[in-house]
Amino acid sequence: MYEPDDLFVVETPAWHVEPTGTSISCIDYSQDGALVAFSNQLGTISVASSYDGDVKRTLEQANSTYPITGLRFHPSEDSLLLSTSRDGTILLYNLPRSEVVNRQRHLGSNLLSMNIDSFGEVFAIACADGSIRIYDLENLQRTKALVKMTAKTATTQTINIYSLVFHPEDSNVIIAAGWSDKVIIWDIRTGNPERSIAGPHVRGPALDIHNDLILAGSSRDKKQLELFDYGTAKKIRDVSIDQTLANGSISINAAKIARNGMDIIAGGVINSGGGPLGSGGPGGGSVVQAFDFTHGKCFGQTPQMQGAVTAAAVSPFGSGFVVGTEAGELACHMVRLKPT
């Protein structure tokens, strides 16, 4: 791996999509890093080249016009893309044919987030009632429901889950976070939480795991990026925001680790000290910073964008990242080696 001092973020975007007014809540890279999927129009998905932003596929359907809350390329079948919408619509697309090949509908509560396990066997949806539902990816049939019960009342605890990930080596483990200021580690086999991490205030897709280190990004002005040990749930270290570079604190809404473990990207709203947390303050804006995963050192930042950062994805090789905002703006930035 490279040293953090060897890397920098190219400030000029490799490509850019103008704001549409529809918030972007999910972005995903294909397994080879060649394609990026995103949605900045209700019910419509764009699949673009990660190199120049040229749209290769526009996926439209008549099943739902609600915001798309989850997008994932299939881990092993390049032709498949899974999407979920807020109203419970679940669609599996064949990309070469630009058509829906399977569909399902979750009833009872809105869908907030979705993720696929690394083997392409199952996927999980986070529901607005605080539950997590597990589905078989081959036929889109539900196989399990994970519901956290309170000890005193034995009733469902209402928790909005805004981010969830599978353990990359064990599809029986799901890590989820939301407004409860906890990260919960679930075992699908028992249907119970095995342990939890208190503290992180996750309010978007700001949860990830690499080499048994859990990254949690929090919407607050201190300790926004933290790494925890998966086995013990103990905190390992902070990843410090470069406040000098940002000209203020950054309230993190989205965070991601490159699959090869080269870098972390994290984005949110700058609080310059003149307003409430997340307001941006006078002269504030929305930016993404990039960090070396091994040392946690910031090596670059994007220019300010319109609206709060709401989603981000990093290429599998850590060589670039794409960020989206609540205004529907999208930008791709490259990570490069400094010239010698």
From TrEMBL:
Q: Which SMART domains match?
A: WD40
Q: Where are the WD repeats?
A: 154-196
Report if keyword NADP is assigned.
no
InterPro entries assigned: WD40/YVTN_repeat-like_dom_sf, WD40_repeat_dom_sf, WD40_rpt
State the UniProt keywords alphabetically.
WD repeat
Which is an annotated Pfam family here?
Answer: WD40
Supply the name of the protein: Uncharacterized protein
